[in-house]
Structures are given as structure tokens and as C-alpha cells.
Amino acid sequence: MTSDTSGRATAPPSMIERMTLIMEAFDDRSVSLRLDEIAAHTGLPRSTSHRILEQLVRLGWLRHTEGGYALGRRALQLGGLVSDHAEIRAVAVPLLEQLHARTGKVAQLGILDFADVVYLDKIGGIGAAALPSRVGGRSPAHAVGLGKAMLAWLPPEEADTLLEGGMKARTHNTITDLLVMHQELRRIRSRHGLAFERDEYVAGISSVAAAVRGPEGVVAGISLSGETGGDPLERYAPLVLDVAKRISRRLFPETSPDDMPSTVWSDGMMERILGLLDDDTLM
Predict the structure, then answer these.
(1) How far apart are CA 146 and CA 111, in angstroms?
(2) For position 273, what pLDDT does the model report?
(3) DSSP codes joined into one string, 114-166
(4) Spatial separation of the C-alpha atoms in residues 219 and 249, rounded to whole Å
């Protein structure tokens, strides 16, 4: 708080200062604070606190829980508390190398950064040259399978905030309508998290992807990509979903099995998943 010439406390003049005051109230990753507690801690009016809190929730910096407000996915990632990129790569790369060796497709690992996918690794030998992605590079999340797989597990209002007004067409297959995108994200969730991209970012390239999820939500995503019209990616879908779950379990070994589905896939389970992948469900 600042003070005026009479020594009385006044609210910070800028929005950034007010947001900083609120974020500093969460001095422990597990703390959950009620609105009145945050207002008392910051000295901000309840109405101002509530307005800023709701903005922070929409953007993923905080989340609204039964006990009040707590740190959200973006705050935890920024602090390295949920998603340490070096740790994710160390866990994921050996599994992605196996996935590439088994399928011959390009395997990629990425994270969601606002409305973009940032690539942490790309494994594919000669086949990787056909893809425009690069380690450290970005792609629009709405136009790639890897991005859609991660967007599918965000709260709808957060996805709206990230995508609204920024869904530009990359090819004639790119989804550019927010309502259509929400329909696509529902289909992804109905397929247990499998996302497909067919010529949506680059003509002639398709992919299948799945998110890597932890107790606090999505931390990364993986994908297999190849030329459209080659081997049908549906045949590799159970492998992609299995590898995503294995990465999750290795990153979060103490997570309850109820929160992290089993990575053991029976033939019957694979058939049921593949049965969902009919032409009507694919974009």
C-alpha cells in the first residue's frame, strides 16, 4: 500500500500493483483464501479485489475452489512448482523416442503458453524436416492437435479468454469459430483426451495428440505427426494416450489412481477407443 501526504493508506494507483498485492497474498502454494481475507491482506476494497480476482481466474493465474481462491496453473508453472520443463523433458523424451521408433512418426512434446504451443522437443529423424515446428518455436494452439489436446482440459471460460479474437485461419481446414472449437474440445474429452488435426496448420500434415495432466491440470502435451494420407493416425491413438498417461504418472507418482487413469490397456479397451474414432468425430 502507498500513503498520501497525511499518512493515510491509499490503494495502489495501477492495476499491475493491485494484481501484485493480491498474488503476494498467496505465499504458500497450498493456501486457499476467501475474498474477505484477500481484501484484508491487501487493503483493497472488496469490490476491487473481487473484480481483479475474477480476471486472474479467467486467465488461469488463480482458481476458484470451495475454500476460496488458490494459485492456478499459470502461477504454479511460472514458479516451477507444477511444471519444470527440464523435468518434463527428462521424463517424456525416452518415452517419445520409443513412440517414434515404434511408429516411424514424428513425436513432439509441448506446453501451452497462453494461446500458443511452445515445443520442448521434437523427435523424428528425416521425417521431422517436413514439419514447420522447431524446439523453442511456437504454433497457434487452435490450429494444431497438440494445442487442442491441452485446450480441451481448460475451464471453458479460460479457453474463451485465450482464443477469442485470435483464431486465424492457417489453411481451409483451420477452426476459426469459437463455438465450433468448443464442440471440437467436447469431442476430444469424449475420446478420453485424444485430439486430431487434419491439414489445419499445414496442408498435407496431420497429427494425433493427448495432454499430460497432473493434480492441478494440464502441464504439457504430446503428439504424433505425419503426412496426411499415409498410415491412418487412428491406429496409433491408444499408444499416444498411453504414453501421455505414463508421463503423468512418472511426473506425479503420488497421485491417486482415481485421479490418474491406469496406463494398462487391454485389447478390448483399445477397440472401444478406436470405435469412437469414426469419421463423424474427426475434424
Answers:
(1) 9
(2) 39
(3) TTEEEEEEEE-GGGGGGS---TT-EEEGGGSHHHHHHHTTS-HHHHHHHHTT-
(4) 12
Q: Cell digits for 278?
A: 469414426
Give residue for cell 493456501.
31
**Domain 2-78 indexed as CATH 3.30.930.10:** no
Confidence grade of residue 127 (pLDDT, cut at 50, 70, 90): low
List strands edge to edge, sheet with 138-140. 138-140, 116-123, 106-113, 217-227, 205-214, 195-198
Contact (Cβ atoms closer than 8 angstroms) between residue 20 and residue 11: no
Report domain extents, the chain. 2-78, 85-281
For the record, the C-alpha cell of 35 comes out as 475474498
Residue 158 corresponds to which cell in the numbers above? 479460460
The pTM is what?
0.64
Q: How far is CA 204 from CA 171, 180, 226, in A?
A: 10, 22, 8
Q: Which CATH number fits domain 85-281: 3.30.70.100, 3.90.1310.10, 3.30.450.40, 3.20.20.190?
A: 3.30.450.40
